[in-house]
Amino acid sequence: MNHVFFGLVTLAVAFAVINGTPAEVGQGALDAAKASVNLAIGLVGYIALFLGLMKVVEEAGGLAFMARLIRPVLIRLFPDVPPDHPAMGAMVMNIAANALGLGNAATPFGLKAMKELNELNTQQGTATNAMVLFLAINTSGLALLPTGIIGLRALNGSADAAAIFPTTLMATGISTVVGISAAIGLSRLPWFAKTSPPPAKAIERPPLRWMDLAPFLGAMAALIALVVAVYVNGEAASVWIMPGLIFGMLLVGVVRGVKVYEVFVSGAKEGFSLAVMIIPYLVAILSAVGMLRASGGLQRLVDWVNPLTSALGIPGDVLPLALLRPLSGSGAFGITAELLETHGPDSLVGNIASTMNGSTETTFYVLAVYFGSIGVNKIRHAVPAGLAADAAGVLASCWAVHWLLS
Hints:
The protein is mainly alpha-helical. The protein is built from 20 helices and no strands.
């Protein structure tokens, strides 16, 4: 992120020299710094609301329910991991937490999963197929509730902040499928297999019963039905997503006997702390982007790449976000905020940026943290698998918005 930040500022200064706009660049930095603080303060309420709701769902057993849904699928995706091994349980909980937007709970489960997977590793220091596949699912940005971006859209005056809910579902689903396919497919190539650990002893598994998959398939059918409903009915359906989501999350807590108010307040306090914590990151990235935009350089870069990206359905304005997202989550959030303010949250660029931020992940950060935690330095095909998921998420975000929201 240091190089990205310095690179953006350097580009801004270079274009200021070329275009003769040094005064505009200086003012752009000051205006962006002020706007970033206002943005973070405005987000406090939205972040507190959603983290409070997520805390209620977590206390009501939502995380355990999600884990039961996906466990039958993961058992088949990871043939080298015994179904009753601690690694399987940790992976299930990590993926379930990520899907629900519980990043604070997902990371400890993820680190635990990598530690347990390393216990099964017969060649220490080299990533196993299971490790790469697990991280491909993580870097694909699998998320069902893009609450942070919905709050950002509401702050910018969106007429339907939750409209990106179905587009995010569609994009993150495609990204995850591509990430899984890439991880499995690349593992079979000779170039990557040369450094692969010896295959583990075959693990006997219970026969696949459709009854085991019924809850998972039912959940997928419900999500697909939501996407179709938005496609058919448009705003008449999407405007009900937010009130239905809030009511449903609280209802789950009431039914499960959770002290809804107390738990909500506890989660909201975490949201307040989180909103304050992101201020320095927003100041840095938004100031750099503000300088580049004021210099005229950002528009020039967009004009250069627009013919190529437009052919793929990608507006040139979102290309910086697509390039930065695998590198920095806070940086990508800052660029998304800047795009929503500049183009409007309900514009084509605003909808695509919102969907893209909610359906892709900081690939290199995830790989560095998780592999670094267990001392793996030969990561084999983890980077291409993660980047394949990122690329699919970018394209799927654009196509989903064109299909559902245009």
